[in-house]
Structure formats: C-alpha cells, structure tokens
Amino acid sequence: MSQRQVLQVFEQYQKARTQFVQMVAELATRPQNIETLQNAGVMSLLRPLLLDVVPTIQQTAALALGRLANYNDDLAEAVVKGDILPQLVYSLAEQNRFYKKAAAFVLQAVGKHSPQLAQAIVDCGALDTLVICLEDFDPGVKEAAASALGFIARHNAELSQAVVDAGAVPLLVLCIQEPEIALKRIAASALSDISKHSPELAQTVVDAGAIAHLAQMILNPDSKLKRQILSALSQIAKHSVDLAEMVVEAEIFPVVLTCLKDKDEYVKKNASTLIREIAKHTPELSQLVVNAGGVAAVTDCIGSCKGNIRLPGIMMLGYVAAHSENLAMAVIISKGVPQLSLCLAEEPEDHIKAAAAWALGQIGRHTPEHARAVAVTNTLPVLLSLYLSAESSEDLQIKSKKAIKSILQKCTYLPALEPFLYDAPPNILKHVVGQFSKVLFPWIFRNTSAESGQLPTTY
Amino acid sequence: MATLARLQARSTFLAQQYYFRNSVVDIFRKKEYDAAVKIQSWFRGCRVRAYLRHLHRVATVIQKCWRGYLGRQQYQLIVKLAFCSMKMNLYNAMAVRIQKQWRGYRIRKYCFNYFYYKEYLRAVSETNDAIREALEEFAEMKEREDKKADLERKEKKKGYEARKMHYLLSTKQIPGIYNSPFRKDPDPWELRLQKAKPLISQRPKVKKISVSVSNWPAYASPQVLPQPKILPPIDRKPCQGPFRDITEVLEQRYKPLEPTLRVAEPINELQAAREELRKQECMRNIHDDMFLPFSSYNKNKKYIPLMHSSSKYGPDSYGSQHFRDENPTKWLCNKEIKEDKI
C-alpha cells in the first residue's frame, strides 16, 4: 500500500476521534442524553482522549468532561475516581488558552457539587494552577479559573481558607477591574463566596482593597453584575461593626437606594439584604441608614415585590425599630406599619409572616404612642388569629405571641383592645384587662373620690 | 339707902351672881381653858402653817426658778432644733426646686427634647419624601432610557431590513408591493425603502494579516497601512457655481477600494494555501522523514488494468485507442417495440 493510503488511515482515525469527541460534547449539553452517555461508558472513553496528540481533541474532550461532570455528582465523582484530575492540573500549567478554559471548566464542574469533591480538587494541588490561570491574559481563562475558585470556596470555611492561602484574593480584585462584564460578575461572585464564611476571611478580602472597587461598580447598568456586587458587599458587612462601617465609608449611600428601584428582583433582594446587614449592628448605623432616607426606599421596595424578595426588607425594618424608640418612630412616620401589616395579611409563606410579626412587635413595644400606631392599622386581630390558628408553624406562633404581648403591654388605645375581650385566650386576656385597668382606673378615681369618700387604693 | 336696898335686893342676886360668876368661871373654866387651848393651838397651828406656807412659798419660788431655768434650757434646745429643721426644710425645698428645674431641663434638652424630636422626625419624613421622589425620577428615567434603546434597536433592525429589501422599491414602471395603486398613500415601508442605502455584499473584513514573506501582496492593499482619515477643510467658502457638496465629493474621491474577488485574492492563493497546509503538517510531524514502507514494492508496481477492457487475449482497444463505438447500429433493430397490454 502507498504511503498516502497509510497516512489516510491515520487521518481517518483522527477524523473519527474528532467527530466522536465533538458529538459527545454537543450531546452533553442536553440533560436527557447524559443518562444514556453515562450508561454507554463515556467516561472511560474520554479519559484517554485527554492525552491525545491533537490539541483540538484534548480541548473538546476536556469540554465534554466538564459538561458531563456539571450535570450530576455521580459523574463528578467518576471524574475524581478516574484520576483525571492530576493530569488536568498538570496540563493546565502548560497548554494553550482553549485547553486552560476547558480544564478550568472541568474543575469548576467537579467542585461545585459537594465539599468532599472540592476537597479532592484542593488535594491534587489544583489551587496553585488555578491562581496562575488568574494571571493569564485571556479573559476567558480568567473567567473559568475565577468561577472554579468561587465554586470551591462556596462550601465551607476551610476550603475558603485554602483558596485564600493560595493567594487568589488580590488577583480576584484585579479581575474585578477588568473591562469584561462576565469576568467582573464571576470575580465578584467568587469574592462573595469567599467572604461569607467568617470575619477573618472577610477581613482578608477587605485588606486587598476590594470594597472601593465593588462600591464603584454599583453604578454599572448590568443587572447580574449588580446582583453579585451587592451580595459580596452584604457578605462582607454582615460579620462585624468594623466591617459594616468600612462598607458604609465607601459611600454606598444613597447610590444603593437606586438599586432598590431596579427592574431585576434579585438586585432588589440583594440591595435590601445589604442595607439590613448594615443596619442590624448598632443604633448609630441604623441612624445613618434612616438619615439617608433608607427606610422610605426599603418600604417602597417591599411594596413592589412579592414573596421571598420581601424578606430582607421586612427584617431590616424590624432591626432598625429594635434599636431605640426614636428609630421606631422614624419607621412609623415612613409609613412602614401599613406596609408591614399588608405583608402579614397577604403573604402565604409562614416564615415571611413570622418576620413581619416580629418586626411589628419591635416597632410597637417602646411606648404607648408606638403601640397606638401599630394598633390603629388593625393588625392586632390578625396577629391573634395567626397565634391561635392550628395551621401556623411553631415559629410563627411564638413570634406572633411575643409581638402581641409586647404591643399589648404598652397599648392604651381602647378601641383596638376591645375585640380582644371577646375572643382572646386567658394568658393574653390578663394583659388586656391589665391595660384596661391602667387606663380606666385613674379616670374612675378622679371622678368618684370627691363625692363618695376614698376608694381603696389597692386594687 | 336705896342703893343698899337695891344692893340687898340684889345681894342674893349678887351672891348668886357672885357664886354663879365664880362657879361660872369654874363651869366655864374648862371650856375656857379648852377654848384657850384651842385658840392657842390654833394660833400656833396658824403660826406654823404660816411658817410652812412661807417655806412652801419660798421652796416653790426656788423650784420655780430652777424649773424655769431648766425649761428655758430645753426650750432653747427645742428652738434651736426647730430652727435647724426649718432651715433644712427650706434648703431642701429650694434644692428640690433647683433639682426639679434642672432635671426637667436636662430631660427636655438632652434625653427627650420634644421639639428637637419633632424637628428630627419632620426632617426624616422630608428626606424620605425627597428620596422617594428622586427614586421615582430615577425609575422613570431608566424606563425612558430603556424604551428609547428599545426603539432605537427596532429602528436599526428595520433600517437593516429596509436595506436588505431595497430591491422591492417601486420604480416608475412597476409600483412596488408597498406602493399599491389602490392605496391613498404609500405604505411607510415604501418611504423607508426610499431612504435606505442599498446593502451591498459584505466588504472583505480587514483580516489580521500576519507579516510573513509569502503574503507580500498584502502590503500593497490599502487596508494594512494605516490610512489617515481625510476631513474636509475648515472655513472653505462654498464655491460659486453648480458644484456638488464637498463632503460627498471627498467621500467619493477617497472611497476605499473594493476590489473584485478576482483582484482581491493574490494570484497564487492556491499555491500559498498548499504551502500553508504543508507547513502545518510539517509542524505536526515529529520528524520530517517520510514513513517509508518496509519493502520496496512500489518499485515493482504493476499496472492493474480495468476489468471492463481486459479479456483473455489482452486489453481491449476501446478506452485507450478509440472511444467511440465501432458499429453504433449493432444493438439497434428495426422492429417496433411491442407495447405490453396491461
């Protein structure tokens, strides 16, 4: 046979391999095919193709592996057990950018399922190579490496610490400043995942100078980017007063309030989460939020969403009102109480109702003025019915009982107390009657003691 | 005598009287003695009593003075105490007054300043209103921007479609589909088509031409070397006369070359492509020696003729010496074809 024909055989084989690997990669994009592929033993076929001579086949094989591992954790475990990871990590350091992207994608797909798999990735030394990839010129490679690091750091504090120890944080902060929006998004999400576990990790992120860059990017019009940035800032601010103060010093107010008017629901949710995390630490921080007009903005935001999106806003109002009576009065004049009672009445979920009940309790417990402001909106019967109904969860019952008790102990607004006399259980009825006596007794004493001698002063 | 008679008459009486008077004295001697004793004892008693009374009086005076002295002492003490307590009460009352004023002032100024509180709440509600307005404005502005962007996108798309469908423009002879003669006004698409510039095929995109010796014609093409953009000169007075607009002229004059396909590709494109392919293969190979077969049977290559033109007696001349049929009418017959009756 001629030389050409021999070469033709090799060419055919190469073509066949390329076709196979491209078809597998394409099939792996659809979830219904993956079961069939798994049963056909695709993993063992793809593994040698990773070491193929032709770079295109290597890259496509890595891409196919990544897509398969992305789908469920059995396949990801198969990737780990098949000792593919060390080979990937080794070749990550040397190959071209397409291969790096595909390999980083595989690492991300494996690492996202469970902490054990992420630990396996860390154990085979992938973190250093991923951090080296973060320094690459190509933005696609940086994106893939940043998302892999983010998924690894998401699971628990040890893994986050490992990511930080590999020196990823300064590079991620550099990635945030890059012009590509997708890269910014992923870097912000990775920083958010790192800083959410503990105050030390958040401090590390802050020390790398992340807050200033994150705060600048709040003005960016892209909604997904805003989501990630607000989430990152709220994860930083939630740990301690100092971190919250640093976030506030980056002059996020009143820009953050514009995010509460965004069309994207999750941007609104993350913005109200950020404001909640700031306001919950000290009365001074809550004061700052109130002075910037945050309470009105959050109240409007609560009014414009439904469901779980509202929850951080409701909790924020509760935290602000809990600090002092001036702040509770500020919440009342910002029309927070009608909004909260609306939430209490119309939300189907129990945990949101419990949060609304808690917030109302915090508002109404300070002085008779506050209790009157809460009672006037006719929420007390709603709270009572929630406490008494058998369908409410235990948490909801406890919270509504506490709210009723704390409001009733200060309430002197009699028309709101009257319905309670008819259908309240005895442990609440005693408070109601006590309040009635507090209001009525001085009146009786004043009006009858002059004529008919001294009434006994003990009652 | 008379007196004697009287005396004698009265002598018995006198004797009686003398007896009586002596006996009376005796009769009453005890009485008188008792009386005298009584009187004397009474008088002595009176004297003693007087003396006692005197003593009493004197003792009373002494006691009175002494008691007065003691009482005055007590009284001074009491007065002192009363005075002190009155003073203290006064001081307390004044202190209470001061404290009352101070506490009221302190609470009103520092702990719960009602007016400041009211002012603060008013300021907070004003800030809230301002923020609400600002946010609404922001939301409106965003919506307007979004709508504008949307409209622009739609316009661009329609413009692109109009450019692609430019051939549907109506001519003088044939009214286009958007300019039906039965309509009062032409369809807005017609106007858009009129305004649109016809879309010619895509200009060859400026490829990133790698600098290599093999593609020297690329140096000649105008896209490689950076062209300075020629702007129309400033402050040129429009020339008098029927001249065209200067920008149009310059645009036409400096229109970049759009060569035809034959000219755009270098003449030895095919050769260059083959060289490129050969070079790539060369790159992939581990070494440049060709894979030589084991035996040199290529030298003993025997020609294997076609089955069609070979027979026992050697090759057929058809196919190598002549290509036409020797007798074309060999297979023809004059009989008519019988049709099968179905």
From TrEMBL, chain A:
Any single GO BP term: epithelial cilium movement involved in extracellular fluid movement
Protein location: Cell projection, Cilium, Flagellum; Cytoplasm, Cytoskeleton, Cilium axoneme
Broad class of the protein's primary localization: other
Domain of life, per lineage: Eukaryota
Gene3D superfamilies assigned to the protein according to its UniProt record, in alphabetical order: Leucine-rich Repeat Variant (1.25.10.10)
GO CC terms: acrosomal vesicle; axoneme; extracellular region; microtubule; sperm principal piece
Coiled coil: none
InterPro entries attached to this UniProt entry: ARM-like, ARM-type_fold, Armadillo
GO-annotated molecular function: microtubule binding
UniProt KW Repeat keyword: yes
This protein's UniProt keywords: Cell projection, Cilium, Cilium biogenesis/degradation, Cytoplasm, Cytoskeleton, Flagellum, Microtubule, Repeat
Sequence intervals crossing the membrane: none
PANTHER family linked to this entry: SPERM-ASSOCIATED ANTIGEN 6 (PTHR23314:SF0), SPERM-ASSOCIATED ANTIGEN 6 ARMADILLO REPEAT-CONTAINING (PTHR23314)
Known function: Important for structural integrity of the central apparatus in the sperm tail and for flagellar motility.
The protein's assembly and partners: Interacts with SPAG16 and SPAG17.
Protein name as it appears in the record: Sperm-associated antigen 6
Species annotation: Suricata suricatta
From TrEMBL, chain B:
Localization, UniProt: Cytoplasm
Domain of life of the native organism: Eukaryota
BP terms from Gene Ontology: establishment of meiotic spindle localization; mitotic cell cycle; spindle organization
UniProt xrefs under PROSITE patterns: IQ
Residue ranges that the Swiss-Prot or TrEMBL entry lists as coiled coil: 117-144
GO CC annotations, alphabetized: cytoplasm; spindle pole
UniProt xrefs under InterPro entries: ASPM (IPR051185), IQ_motif_EF-hand-BS (IPR000048), P-loop_NTPase (IPR027417)
Keywords: Calmodulin-binding, Coiled coil, Cytoplasm, Repeat
A molecular-function term among this protein's GO annotations: calmodulin binding
Major site of localization recorded for this protein: cytoplasm
Name of the protein: Spermatogenesis associated 17
Organism, as annotated: Suricata suricatta
Primary gene name: SPATA17
